[in-house]
Write a structure and sequence with these properties.
The complex is a heterodimer. Chain A is an all-beta fold. Chain A is 0% helix and 51% strand. Chain A has no helices and 11 strands. In chain A, strands 2, 4, 5, 6, 9, 10 and 11 form a 7-stranded mixed sheet that branches. Chain A is globular. The relative contact order of chain A is 0.33. By secondary structure, chain B is mainly beta. Chain B is built from no helices and 12 strands. In chain B, the strands form 3 sheets. In chain B, strands 2, 5, 6, 10, 11 and 12 form a 6-stranded mixed sheet that branches. Chain B has a 4-stranded antiparallel sheet with strand order 3-9-8-7, with no helix packed on it. In chain B, a hairpin with a 5-residue loop joins strand 7 and strand 8. The chains are: A mainly beta, B mainly beta. Chains A and B meet through strand 5 and strand 10 of A and strand 5, strand 6, strand 10 and strand 11 of B.
Amino acid sequence: DSGVTQTPKHLITATGQRVTLRCSPRSGDLSVYWYQQSLDQGLQFLIQYYNGEERAKGNILERFSAQQFPDLHSELNLSSLELGDSALYFCASSVAYRQGTGANVLTFGAGSRLTVL
Amino acid sequence: AQSVAQPEDQVNVAEGNPLTVKCTYSVSGNPYLFWYVQYPNRGLQFLLKYITGDNLVKGSYGFEAEFNKSQTSFHLKKPSALVSDSALYFCAVRARTGYSTLTFGKGTMLLVSP
């Protein structure tokens, strides 16, 4: 157990629907990252939050949004789902972000597998 | 923009033989470099990282990686492969200056045969 908890583990839904993926970071970690893993695109960075604030945005679609709550858990919202959104979504956390801590190791959760039919 | 290339989709090696999983990177300035491993139905697990100093970095499970600045490479190695090493391996890079996210390669599947 990495200490990063993701729910649900598996989710099957239909095109056009909306889902929410949840992540609880490892105790003491302030930064949360979301990644999408698919066979053709590999591991793509979506978005990062640090202590409730958005810090970096990657290849995240406008149909997707995320937030980090005061208790530091984070949610990734995926709407108007398309077949191509089927993927494994990972949450990762790290101790902190500030200048000079780029060597921080990310700790990953087990992922949420989304299947859009 | 920073990027990572893992030129081999799959590496096959017999148990007991040495293994190498290749990684080259592109980043502005000096890099932080990482290797992660993903076992089936699991999240990524940290193996090792290069920060500074000795170009040969030792990590978990007997793995090591060699940083070569002139070749912009960070190949993962192990002297003697185990069947249990079979997994998906990811190389990742982050720039040292400014704010930079962690960029992963597409991964290399390592298959160790008995």
